[in-house]
Design a protein that fits this description.
The structure holds two protein chains of two kinds. Chain A is built from eleven helices and five strands, in the order βααββαβααβαααααα. By secondary structure, chain A is of the alpha/beta class. Chain B is α+β, with helices and mostly antiparallel strands. In chain B, the strands form two sheets. An eight-stranded mixed sheet of chain B has the order 3-2-6-7-8-9-1-10. A four-stranded antiparallel sheet of chain B has the order 5-4-12-11, with no helix packed on it. The chains are: A alpha/beta, B alpha+beta. The structure holds iron/sulfur cluster (4 copies). One iron/sulfur cluster binds next to helix 8 of chain B.
Amino acid sequence: MRTTSSLKLSWVRFTSCSGCQLMLLNCETSLNELARIVELDAFPLVSSAGDRSEPVDIALVEGSLSTPEEVERLLAIRRHSRLLVAVGACALNGGINALVKGERRSCLAGIYGEQSAGWDSFPPQPVHHFVRVDWQIPGCPPERRELLESLGSILHGGWPGRQLMPVCMECRCNENRCLLVEDHAPCLGPITLAGCNASCPARGVPCEGCRGVVPEANRDELYRLLLETGLSVQEIQHRLERFGGTPHGQADR
Amino acid sequence: MIDALFPSYPLPQDVVDDLLDTIRRDWTFWGPCSGEDEVWRLQPLPEGLWPANAVTTFLTVKKLLLPQRAALWSHDQNSYRKAGAASPVAVIGVPLCDLQAVWYLDQVFAEDEPYLDRRKQLLLIGMPCEPGAECRCSRQLMPLAGDLFVGADRVWALSRAGQGLLLECACGVAEEMPLPWPEGPDGQRSQISEDLFLSSAAASIWFDESQRCLSCGACSAVCPTCYCFDLLDSAALDGSVVRRRAWDNCFFAEHGKVAGGHDFRPGRADRLRFRMEHKLLGFGDLRGQNSCVGCGRCRGVCPAEIDLDRIAEQLHLEVGS
Ligand code: SF4
Ligand code: SF4
Ligand code: SF4
Ligand code: SF4
């Protein structure tokens, strides 16, 4: 068991809403303990000191990438980090950022105007498209419990036990009324990675799939069931695309 | 054993009250409650509320015996702790099929300490049910577990503990009688033989049905005799470690995977066939013991309308002679 306080941790942010960082900061009762065992190299939402590009033990990477400069920065971070952990839907699958559609130049001009004419930019990409990712913490935003269990296990030399199973399993274990079967609501629980304790269906809201897709998901059958809920083909496509990139765990580990 | 007789006593209302008071002294009452969402769940019963009959609740007493996710032990630098002891619960309103399922779990977990700790604290009180359209129970299938069975005007002692409670309440003279099984469902189930199953590996039915399966896990979660579990270790920031046991499921992608990357059941068709093998033929010492008690829960929850009985019938048509 590791008890030294020498572990260096860096939180790196690309394009994101910073909600993932906020979730960790929301773990108020654990922050003292965290500060005791790690030395923070960078944490944008906590300190304006940028990352010092020094070697770190763990880099937590939030956000998606869309410029060559970002890719270069990510490559440098990978080189000087012992472990790299991708955190949140943007880092894992592109997230909400990746919804932007259409020709890149006109997208940029639409938001930034003429100044964007010479910018080099590509559609938002997840972290694993460029570097090896050692561990993934999914969610939009991630669960506090999972952030703490992941950090705790990694800081003490292991990976936390986890189950790659669909939200439906947690939903049924909690004896929730099934919104898809009983109410024909467009719930993405059957193909979405569990871990949130089915928090949306538990409140009567169909799962949006924010934790990404479970390995070996049966998209065909869910597509058929979603058609039965009355959604149009286009609506279904949008719903499935929103968080539905690479199945969890199949990026690197 | 199958058509077993149990000591049965007449049950006038004053004895009912007496009996409930006696049980309440040592146990907390749980029973079926329906929420606003029309889902029946086993829950602690509000004072004075008793079920009129048994209900096939969403999850069965399985959730009390093998909780969905529970710590087995934890340790930090200074100490090792086993999970705390279960508290005594009397579950009232359990249908006969679910009592059979507990018998099955009792066989499987006969040497499992956490299970036995919880099992010892459980008083199981069966009641008559009203069979629904999905019911396929059968008294011939297997023995049942339980302590008492409370009918309209008679009560049966199913165990020594149940007998003791009845003697305490002076229930009159015992008569050996069979339990009042519901008339409808018996005999409606499709069985398959070992031979039929073994020769079915290439049957197209597995592929056809499994194409629709979402691997959502609902069928096994609600099944009273599904018991696969996973062991999950994690560490907190302070270095304390906890090992938890959580429900697993043979439809999940990692269920058949072992060290080195081999997968015993690489496709959905293999997984569906595996579940069917467990339900209709059983494993290990219980091979030959059909473990589907016919409660119909899996049919009711499956988004893809996959039905083990229909598969069994199709197998007879496709593979049987
Ligand atoms: S409500 Fe959604 S997540 Fe819950 S069981 Fe139904 S489909 Fe699955
Ligand atoms: S239920 Fe779905 S949308 Fe809601 S938190 Fe869980 S994965 Fe995200
Ligand atoms: S297989 Fe289905 S019908 Fe049989 S015991 Fe399990 S849930 Fe009930
Ligand atoms: S409930 Fe139906 S769809 Fe879900 S795993 Fe079971 S058979 Fe497959």
